[in-house]
Amino acid sequence: MRFKTTSGASGDLFNPEFLARIERLALRSRRNLRGGLSGEHASRRRLPAPTFSDHRAYSPGDDLRHVDWFAYARHEDLHLKLGETEQDINVTIALDCSASLDWGHGELHKGRYALRLAAMLGYLGLTSNDQTTIWPFTSKLIKPFGPMVSRARGPDMLRYLSNLNWAEQTSFTPVIQAVRRSAGGMLLIISDLWTSDLEPLLRAAAPPVWQVVVLHLLHPEEIKPTLTGPVEFEDSETGQVLALELDQQTHKAYREKLVRWVRMHEQVCQRYGATYAGIRTDRPLEQSILPFLRRRGIIGL
């Protein structure tokens, strides 16, 4: 079954060309995540299995289907074949829907980019038959999508994402609360990180129960502003207004502070065993985030 786009806004946002690219991908997880036994990911759980990797002695009550009869014919001892069982995992996408994402134009719009990234990652989870959930959040948790399994739920996911709006302030507090109620798995955080509580979230979603990837979205104007002269900035989340004279010295001070701010997030992620990726919205997914995730074993072809 091919993954089909829906009509209307989602048809423009999630067009057939975009869907064709992500259909080739398969989600992989690290081998130490918890999970059941129905998915497509290799597990370290050494149980009797048809895929052979080792032996152990037979014990009364063991399933005779896993006996290595060829070894018995040679040695007249009963041993079970052990293998790496397959497991499913919980794939959770925490999607920032605060007002600061409603910024930029066209393909560079942060919210549009975030939705396409969430659709890509959600699709990868569904096609791998993983329990896939999307947690949109602002200062509260919006009604989630899922958990769902199977690519057949893909159109439902696209319709769901297409109906999300950008409003209110960013806070990871509702995500922290949801993490504490969950069993663990892979947590993919999509946010511009205009909030100060990332560290408590990473502390709550610690390994080995969770594998966390922080996907930090930035518009190119946030990285290297082009405005000059007297300007007034209005915080899209708080409404606070700041008047500035933008000259060469101001731009230099801003870039230095931005570098320190990004480095701080990288260090926090490293401290808690999370993966950090800074993502510019002017770079296509294939040229930035997909190679990054492949190199780190999050996804593969």
UniProtKB/TrEMBL annotation:
DUF58 domain span: 55-257
PANTHER family in UniProt: BLL2464 PROTEIN (PTHR33608), DUF58 DOMAIN-CONTAINING PROTEIN (PTHR33608:SF7)
Domain of life: Bacteria
Protein source organism: Herpetosiphon aurantiacus (strain ATCC 23779 / DSM 785 / 114-95)
InterPro entries for the chain: DUF58
Protein name: DUF58 domain-containing protein
